[in-house]
Amino acid sequence: MSGTAAERAPRAGVSASGRERILSRIRAAVAGAPDVEITRAYRTSSDPAGAVELFAERVADYRAVVHVVEAGEVAGAIAATLDRRAPARLVVPDGLPEEWARAVRSAVEARAADAGAEPGPGAAAIVRDEPVLSAAELDAADGVITGCALGIAETGTIVLDAGPGQGRRALTLVPDYHLCVVRADQIVAGVPEAVGRLDPARPLTWISGPSATSDIELNRVEGVHGPRTLEVVIVR
């Protein structure tokens, strides 16, 4: 390589002066041009009819497990789901509705009684995020149950914003199983409605099915970046 280090070093101000020359030419080229109004006719609403059914269909398309139940059946659906899944250690965030929390406690206590397990690290238990669980502790949990901020029918997307009953983002990104309860009044038709209802200052997690990716040969692998299994209880 020829030249001294000083000669090879980029000269200070070269990039800045080049940028200014380009901007000057642009300003000269558009000088006197009339202002053009840019029309942004974005869709801001969609037909809400059949939103619950469409949401259930689209969520199932992502290979999530979906249950649609009536309002009085949600506790039973949670208990039945956990009975089938049989998690030993389930993370439960603060603010989960008491009816759902009771169903979780009953299912976990029933599993512990059936197993005849003594209290201890291996016993079936509800895990709280207080004090804050480490990544290793979350990874050791069998799953998590949460509510959500809203669901989007057209895309089958669930959005969490760390509100009551949802917990911080890590709770739904690290455990291998996520059971999410979505109420009908939380389901909007499309993304524009969702954006209008969400607070952009909150930590938003958009979930479209279980975590999945594929390699160059399009072999699907689930559970790489989040829960391998997503189960959704939709409450009419």
UniProtKB/TrEMBL annotation:
Pfam families: LUD_dom (PF02589). It comes from the Bacteria. Residues 135-235 form the LUD domain. SUPFAM superfamilies: NagB/RpiA/CoA transferase-like. Coiled coil: none annotated. InterPro entries: FTHF_cligase-like_sf, LUD_dom, NagB/RpiA_transferase-like. This is L-lactate dehydrogenase complex protein LldG.
